[in-house]
Design goal:
The protein is mainly beta and 330 residues long. It is built from five helices and 18 strands.
Length: 330
C-alpha cells in the first residue's frame, strides 16, 4: 500500500471539513495544583560513642502556582516513631538557608528546580531515633491538605578491618585503601563520597592545576556489594563532565592521595524509598522515572539513610599521627 495518496486524501478531507465548520471556543483546563514533598532523614553513627546524630530536611513545592495560590509557608512537618516521640521541622526563611542532607554526605540546594519551594529543617543534634526504626511522616499544609509517608531506616553497619582513632586514620601517600563494611539490614543501596582538602600545593608540585578543595562521588552500589577502593574508585561520574584540568586531577588521584591531602569519606546505607525516587529505567524518553513514597494530598519521597564517616590524611608515619587505616591496595 502506497502511503502517499492516503496522506494526500487525508489532508483533502481535513481541508473540506474545515471549510464547512466554524472554529470552536476551546478552554484549556488549568493544571492540577499538587504538593510535592522531598523529605530526607540522615542518621550518622558518631565515632566517639556519643550516640547518633540526626539531620532531616524537607523541601515543599508545587507542580503549578499562580500568584493567588496559597503559599506552603506555615506548613507543619513532623517525623515520628510511636515509642520514641516526634521531631517537628522548623521553617527556614529562604530556600538557600535550607540545605537538604543527602545520603552521600554532600549537601545540595534543590531550590533552583523549585523556585516556589519552602524549606524545613530539624533543629536537634542527637537523634531520638535509631537505625532499624520505622519512621512516619506527616505534613499538614496551611489549607488543610495532608501528606503522609513511612520509611524503614536501614540498620547500623560497621566498617571492618579499619584501624582508626577518634574517627581518623592515615594513608601512605600515593596508595589506595579498600573500605569494607558489613551489610546493613533493610539497605537497598550503598553510596559513598569524599571531600578532599589541601590539593592545590601538592598538585602544583606535579605541574597540575587543581582547586584546593574537591568533591568526588563514589559508586552508587547495590545491596550486594560491600567494598569500595579509595581514592581510585571515586570521581568516575565527575570525570566525564570535568574540564581537562579537572580530569588531570582525577587521573592523578587514582594513584592515591598526594602527601598532605586530607579527606572526609562518608559511606551510607540508603533505604528503598531513596532508591525508587532516584533511579531511572533503561529507556525513559520522558525523563527519569520516580516512584513516590509520599501519599495523600500530594506526592514525593520520604527517604532515610544511615551513615559512617571517616577522616583520613595522606602522610608518612610520624609521632602523634593517627594509625594507618590498613594495608594498601596493590
Amino acid at each position: 500500500m502506497n502511503p502517499r495518496p492516503i496522506a494526500r486524501r487525508a489532508g483533502a478531507l481535513g481541508a473540506a471539513a474545515l471549510a464547512g465548520c466554524a472554529l470552536l471556543d476551546v478552554r484549556i483546563a488549568d493544571p492540577e495544583d499538587v504538593i510535592i514533598a522531598e523529605v530526607q532523614v540522615l542518621l550518622t553513627h558518631e565515632w566517639n560513642g556519643n550516640g547518633t546524630s540526626f539531620e532531616a530536611g524537607a523541601l515543599l513545592h508545587r507542580t503549578f502556582q499562580r500568584e493567588e495560590t496559597p503559599t506552603l509557608r506555615g506548613s507543619t512537618v513532623v517525623i515520628s516513631e510511636p515509642t520514641k516521640g516526634s521531631v517537628r521541622l522548623e521553617e527556614r526563611r529562604d530556600v538557600e538557608e535550607c540545605v537538604i542532607p543527602s545520603p552521600q554526605g554532600r549537601d545540595s540546594i534543590p531550590g533552583e528546580l523549585a523556585p516556589n519551594a519552602v524549606c524545613y529543617r530539624a533543629n536537634v543534634a542527637l537523634s531520638p531515633f535509631d537505625p532499624g526504626d520505622r519512621l512516619s511522616l506527616e505534613i499538614t499544609a496551611p489549607d488543610g491538605r495532608v501528606l503522609v509517608g513511612s520509611s524503614l531506616v536501614p540498620g547500623a553497619f560497621d566498617l571492618v578491618e579499619l584501624d582508626e582513632e577518634d574517627g581518623r586514620c592515615r594513608l601512605d601517600p600515593d596508595t589506595n585503601y579498600r573500605f569494607q563494611w558489613r551489610f546493613a539490614e533493610n539497605a537497598w543501596s550503598y553510596l559513598a563520597d569524599a571531600r578532599l582538602e589541601g590539593l592545590r600545593l601538592p598538585m602544583a608540585q606535579r605541574d597540575i592545576d587543581s582547586p584546593d578543595t574537591l568533591y568526588l562521588l563514589g559508586f552508587a552500589i547495590d545491596a550486594e556489594d560491600s567494598t569500595l577502593v579509595f581514592s581510585s574508585e571515586f570521581g568516575i561520574f565527575e570525570f566525564f563532565a570535568a574540564t581537562d584540568e579537572e580530569r588531570d586531577v582525577i587521573r592523578e588521584l587514582r594513584r592515591g592521595l598526594p602527601g598532605g591531602v586530607g579527606a572526609t569519606v562518608a559511606m551510607a546505607a540508603a533505604d528503598r524509598n531513596w532508591v525508587n525516587w532516584e533511579r531511572g529505567g533503561n529507556f525513559n524518553p520522558s525523563g527519569e522515572v520516580r516512584i513516590p513514597s509520599v501519599f495523600g494530598d500530594g506526592t514525593g519521597v520520604f527517604s532515610t539513610a544511615t551513615r559512617r564517616v571517616v577522616r583520613v590524611r595522606a602522610t608518612e608515619f610520624r609521632p602523634g599521627a593517627p594509625p594507618l587505616c590498613g594495608p594498601a591496595v596493590s
